[in-house]
Prior knowledge:
The complex is a heterodimer of chains A (654) and B (304).
Chain A: H1 3-27, E1 33-37, H2 40-52, H3 55-82, H4 87-91, E2 98-105, H5 124-137, E3 143-150, E4 154-156, H6 164-173, H7 183-194, E5 201-206, E6 223-228, E7 239-249, E8 252-264, E9 270-279, H8 285-290, E10 294-302, E11 306-316, E12 321-327, E13 343-347, E14 354-360, H9 364-372, E15 376-381, H10 383-387, H11 389-395, E16 403-407, E17 419-422, E18 431-433, E19 439-441, E20 461-463, E21 471-477, E22 482-487, E23 493-496, H12 510-522, E24 538-542, E25 551-553, E26 560-561, E27 563-565, E28 568-572, E29 580-582, E30 588-592, H13 629-653
Parallel strand pairs in A: 2-3, 2-5, 5-6, 14-15, 14-16, 16-17, 17-23
Antiparallel strand pairs in A: 3-4, 7-8, 8-11, 9-10, 9-12, 12-13, 18-20, 19-21, 21-22, 22-23, 24-28, 25-26, 25-29, 27-28, 29-30
Helix pairs in contact in A: 3-13, 5-6
Chain B: H1 16-28, E1 41-47, E2 51-57, H2 69-75, E3 79-87, E4 90-96, H3 111-128, E5 132-138, E6 149-150, H4 155-163, H5 173-178, H6 180-183, E7 189-194, H7 202-211, E8 215-222, H8 224-228, E9 233-239, E10 245-250, H9 252-276, E11 279-284, H10 289-300
Parallel strand pairs in B: 4-5, 4-7, 7-8, 8-11
Antiparallel strand pairs in B: 1-3, 2-3, 5-6, 9-10
Helix pairs in contact in B: 1-3, 3-4, 3-10, 7-9
Amino acid sequence: MSPTVQTLSQWAIWLAAVIATVGLLYLIRPRRRRVTVQFAGLWQKALARSEAQRFGGRWRRLLSLLLSLLISSTLMIAIGEDVLGLRSWTQAPKHDARFTLIVVDVSASMATLQDHQATKSPTRLQRAKSRIREMLQNAGVFDQFLVMSASGVVMTHCGWTNEIKTLADTLNTLQIRQGSVNIDRVERAAADALRGKTGAKMVWVSDGGHPAPRLSLPTKELRIGSHTIAPSDQGVFNLAVEHMTLRPNAGDPGRATLSIKIRNDSLIPMQARIVIYASDQAQSPAEFERTKSVQALHRLQVPAQSTEWLQLPNTALSNAHYAARVRPPATLAQHDVATWDDWGFVVNEQRRRLRIWRVGRPNLFLDAALLANEQLDVKRLNEVDLQSDFMQDKLNNQRGPDVVVFNQANRPYSLDVPSLTFDLSLRSDAKIVVAPDDLIINDSNHPVMRGVSLHDTNVDKVRVIDPRPQTRALVSIRGGGSVIVARSRAPREVELGLSLQETDIGGRYALPILLSNALDWLVGRSAWLPSSLVLGQRWSVRAPTDISGWIWKAPNQAPRSARRAGDHLIGVSEAHGIHIWLGPKGQRILRATRLPEVERPIVKYPALSLWTMNSTRPTRDQSTDRTPVWWWLSFAVVMGLIVEWGLYQRRRVA
Amino acid sequence: MARAPQPKVRSDLFDTSFLRRVEHLALLARRISSSGQRANRRTKQIGAGIEFADHRSYSEGDDPRHLDWNVFARSQKLLLRRYEEEQDLSVYLMVDCSPSMNMGPSGQRTPFERALQVAAALGYVSLSNLDRVCLVPFTDGMARPTKTLRGRGQFASLLTQLSSLSLSGQTQLPMAVRDLPRYRPRRGLVVLISDMCDLRGVGDALRYLSFHGHDTLVLQLTDAQGFESNLWGDLTLVDVETGQSRDVTLTPALLQAYRNEYDELTDQVQAMCRQVGARHLLSELSTPFDQLVMRVFRVGGFLG
Lengths: 654, 304
């Protein structure tokens, strides 16, 4: 017999045994005695009464009553929705509804773990969401909610609604954003949302790191409830690079002082670990870490809730981009709530290479001054070559020159590139012989003339430049007449009525300084002491020229058009890294910076709010000829009670 | 043509001792007389009796022989004298013949047997009073009433009729009562002997009898105590009349609920009787027969 057959036979035996056991149990099962009674209906009633007198039976009766009332009420409302005109009550927001604005703090500190010892502790934002959900569950039918999130920017996530599911979905979409809360914006957004709402309430859900907003006159009877998610004495474990500057040493352009301002948001002093990165290409934290460009490590003790400077003098300016990353001590490193503000960036403007076309006659002093600056790529051209179509196309190309330097050459009239012109007209009647002390610097604070001294400079002859619109005389001669003028309107121009051959200015320090200043001013590098950037903030930079079509390039993001407001360019920093302003042709015109100059104030205006728009459907309050809803509800309840009592009596009699 | 066999009297019910007890009970009854065609039982009818009842105003068409001239002489008012008419009473003995009447404790009389004995006793007394006695067995409808008996000599016939009754069908009192005026239109005393387990339509039936002028006595025979004594645990209760079954687990709580339901049923029967002016007598099977019959005599007015 094969093993398979053996196995099957064993199974058959087991199966037969089981069947026999089941059959035997079935045969000997306890059977019910059959008893003949006079009237089974009496037993039926006794069973029903016994069932009803049980604890569950009583509650079932009560539940039956409640269910019947609920059905009656629902039917009445459903009928009333169309017949009695209650649709507005069920759908349209009522003026007397309770409006609750929920503003959730989604700033970096809300990422703090509630329990620092637990690895799976919920964050403060998760706690905030759960608190809000509890509040929504306890809300009434008439309550209308609006959810806003606040960090550097304030966002509205849904309209006024009383649907719990919609609000729950909205809460799920809230995420931590970079930056801290801008209370001023919160107040303005809340005032806009609550305008016209009577009896409104605002719930500020935060970890206590920011004061609750104080709305001045947005609405009547406004109540602001503040929900603190975490005890304030825990503080926020966070170290941030608040400021980072790079100041070249005087007389030593190859070295600079790197200053890093570290902020400690915690309630305890912390020893900050600072890593200095340097790279020529990296523009974002990921790129700096990927290129392994660590240059130095430093430690700095930062007092609680204070700032401390780290000064690194004589830093070699060997790279274009510098970054610093600060970390808390190793024991608290995992609790740093905002990793994105651990980074600071700065650009070594000295490493910025400019493309210079020098057109015209060669001059030893000029060429020496240009060659002395390592940041310049100088290309020499004849005046005739510049007139060719090929060079004209190249001139206006994206890879064209940043500045064109003319020396004893005619400057084309339609030149869209910033230019520096040394020109002493060959016409003798235009020359004026001046004494050394006849040159007067009109504006020594102008970027072009900063640090330039013309004292005891023998210029011999100058050419007086006719005044033109939007030009400024930087240097003039005694008795009138401009010699050095600067035109700030795009394209910028600096014109000198001097000849490098017929003056001794070329042999003085003034020429390289003047040349460097002029080139910096022409390309917009006038202010080169950077400051930090706060993410989420909207910044504006004064545009150096009137050229439109500026491009704002954020790290790891595609270039996009920068908004222009007046003479400012506006952008919102959403990523952490080195931001670059590009010209209309894609070339770097402005300094590569993430360092704004002026924060553009937001104009207060009476906002058109969606929530103040009148609905075409009349609200229940506006309708005076309709029976109040509470009357119908009461009627439904009374009718339900009467029906239930009647049914009870009928059951009792039967 | 062969005659049908004459049904015999059930000797187990109507034996010599029973007859002796009935005779004894009848002697206890007062006002037993043999007054010819006129019985001595007062009725509500006003007519040709000799017992003065009251006066009423004369109206055109009345028989002037009934004018009370003495009153006219004193008050100048024409008034008629009215008398209570004394008639013989029709006693309808309605016996429930449904199978539920056969349920009872072992070793004792079943409700049906007790009903037959009570009916026999009532019939004997009524026949002795020269009342008309008619046996009306019923289940889901009224069987054709037996021949109306009159006089003590018809007692044997009554026993024969009672012995011929058998159990069948399902109790439906309204159907049974509905046919009574059709066969026996004369109003009288209706003695309804039943266990009254099914109250469906009982109220209507009693009102129907009252509407037709019957004086009703309901004798309810119960056996609630005997049922509870020997039943526990998981049971299948089968209705003796309908055959419907229901599985129950008999617990003290359920027994108490059943007892409450039975009490409530009895209260409802009493309430229904009270509403229509009928008399109600509740009797346990354990009650001695003599005591039961005397109570029936007293409640039913057989003793005057």
